[in-house]
Amino acid sequence: MAAPTPTTAASTAGILRLRTHATRARLATGLRRPGGRPATALVRAAQPAVPERVEQSVNTIRFLAVDAVEKAKCGHPGLPMGCAPLGHILFDEFLRFNPKNPAWFDRDRFVLSAGHGCMLQYALLHLAGYDGVTMDDLKAFRQWGSTTPGHPENFETPGVEVTTGPLGQGFANAVGLALAEKHLAARFNKTDLKIVDHYTYVILGDGCQMEGISNEAASLAGHWGLGKLIAFYDDNHISIDGNTDIAFTEDVLARYEALGWHTIWVKNGNTGYDDIRAAIKEAKAVKDKPTLIKVTTTIGFGSPNKANTYSVHGSALGSKEVEATRSNLRWHHEPFHVPNEVKRHWSHHVDEGASLEAEWNRKFADYEKKYHEEAAELKTIITRELPSGWDNALPTYTPESSPDATRNLSQKCLNALAKVIPGFLGGSADLATSNMTLLKMSGDFQRDTPEERNIRFGVREHAMGAISNGIAVHSPGLIPYCATFFVFTDYMRAAIRLSALSESGVIFVMTHDSIGLGEDGPTHQPVEQLFSLRAMPNILLLRPADGNETSGAYKIAVLNRKRPSILALSRQKLPQLKGTSVDAVAKGGYIISDNSSGNKPDLILIGTGSELEIAEKAAEELRKDGRAVRVVSLVCWELFEEQSEEYKESVLPSEVTSRLSIEAGVTLGWEKYIGQKGKAIGVDRFGASAPAGKIYKELGLTVENVIATAKTL
């Protein structure tokens, strides 16, 4: 079917979008649902004539997207063409930002969860005056080194808050951003001075709605009453495989209402400008719950032959269809043209943004005078400046200190850090008493107690990780942690990967890190996760062996704000080892004991976590037989690889080929450190249900087996 011309769009959009589902019929007629429950709010205002300037601006956005995708010969033009009216109204009339300082603290946050439609965001950033998105950048869409990559990346493009693309992740990030705003507002706002006061807006599509993470995140947002979170659902009914009727027919608004959201339906997102405005105003008036605005649009609006089809979702229109679309929308301009009238109009955001920030700076100056302590605390969150001597709060241990599980030692670190770092907060996926992550000095972050710092995520690992990413990128000094059993990183791997990619310094506290958890068996015993996560770029995996290494791991995690850290922690008790060090953890690998001289041991035993104790005990026995044995803790492979060649040689001298590693995980990867002549003791199978000691014995992770294997080298 041909796309509507501009003059008939309002009348034909409904035909293009006609569905026969009873739920849609009830919504369209305003009827009550069974049981007398009121139907969702429905915006159906009469449409006045659209000012020429608005239509010019909207078409500018559309064709910047069309032209960029066409030049790149790849991309997703459909969403920008359909969402251009929404994008224009949101950015031009509602969003508060300063294009010359994208990092201004009290700006509104915008997330494009449907990240494939990123040319919508790039076009808006360019028009609004962001220096990092020039016309040349738009023309370099999807090219090497450009600030306009194929999906939004916060580390590449000023004005992009989070990295999106994997569907649903951005929506969960937005929940984290809104949580951060609510938390900081509750902690720092005063009756006479609101110093934290901004909204989080997010656009998500049908694909985001289908992904399970969005439901997890929406459930939490409703539970927490995040009233400053406004989500726009681009309801265009098209995904890669075709019409969403083939797999997605639920009543999305009814689901969100059940999750505690306020919902609105804008039936005509193509030309219903006033309806969109009214919906946003209504959403902002609702203070006690988040709002989902379903905006029904035509994907690829204006394209005569491809609108409302899957072919416009993820492919360039092609030169003939581009020209047909130009003719259809009466856009008689060369590619990448921005009319002077549009430039003049959008230019007001530069002065307006500067004024907004200046006004906030004046307000904050007053705040500093009246509330000096609170202002100083908030400054550390805004600037990432850690308090002097913060790391002195971390506990230290001697070999005489009591044995303990590193998950328990972790809790001591968490509570010590929360007392000295104002932006430290987090929680667990319904495992706080097993992960040992509760902050004893604080209550629970809830709808009516948002100032508290314990976050209850419930059994929602995937959303937990993505929400934590949102918290981390909200403000440089917010340091979120989240926790579950190590094996369940598989539930949240996509969020962990995006944390690494987007440089979000989340601390992932992962307990029950091996077969050492015992009787729960192989479903809960991680074996491949250590290597799997070590393979991920820009992330630190730390597996501490005792109290000092646990404190050292937290020190590293706090200092690394541009990359996340995973702490793999034991359920079972471990001794406090002689030779471990808080500061040495920063090296990634170091010598904890050695009876050799001249950097020429007969044998090097390498261990991590709970197996370092086994390596040390085996070394003690081997030394009794006259062997020179070095024991190395390789607590973090990534940090060790960052050390100088001289340092690495001092720990693992290349001339010493008799090397043996021991770790309760797959042996894959250890060849890098043990070499061709070394051996690795590990777990290259799934575990078993039995007491931990029995499993260790049956699988060969014992002092006796280390000694026997060492004697073969």
From TrEMBL:
This is transketolase. GO terms for cellular component: cytosol. Keywords: Magnesium, Metal-binding, Thiamine pyrophosphate, Transferase. The active site is at E461. Substrate binds at H76, H313, R407, S434, H512, D520, H524, R571. One of its GO terms (biological process) is pentose-phosphate shunt. It comes from Eragrostis curvula. Binds 1 Mg(2+) ion per subunit. Can also utilize other divalent metal cations, such as Ca(2+), Mn(2+) and Co(2+). Residues 404-576 form the Transketolase-like pyrimidine-binding domain. It holds the Pfam family Transket_pyr. InterPro entries: THDP-binding, Transketo_C/PFOR_II, Transketolase-like_C_2, Transketolase-like_Pyr-bd, Transketolase_bac-like, Transketolase_fam, Transketolase_N. Its cofactor is Co(2+); Mg(2+); thiamine diphosphate. Mg(2+) binds at D206, N236, I238. Belongs to the transketolase family. One of its GO terms (molecular function) is transketolase activity. It catalyses: D-sedoheptulose 7-phosphate + D-glyceraldehyde 3-phosphate = aldehydo-D-ribose 5-phosphate + D-xylulose 5-phosphate. Homodimer. SUPFAM superfamilies: Thiamin diphosphate-binding fold (THDP-binding), TK C-terminal domain-like. It is an enzyme of class 2 (transferase).
